[in-house]
Design brief:
There is one protein chain. The protein is mainly alpha-helical and 53 residues long. Helices cover 66% and strands 0% of the residues. The chain has three helices and no strands.
Length: 53
């Protein structure tokens, strides 16, 4: 499931320029690249604390 969501997300941002990825929609709002970075860091942190069966 996560792989499907990740794939859809990558398709959604494919072809965006650096300027588009860095743009803030409003003052104080995150850019696309900041959101992607946050998702990456959170996924990494969560997988580190999950027990491996």
């Amino acid at each position: 499931m996560n792989e499907n969501i990740r794939g859809e997300l990558l398709i959604g941002v494919k072809g965006l320029s650096d300027e588009q990825l860095d743009a803030h929609p409003e003052e104080g709002r995150w850019s696309i690249i900041q959101i992607l970075d946050h998702l990456y860091l959170m996924e990494r942190a969560i997988t580190r604390i999950l027990p491996i069966n």
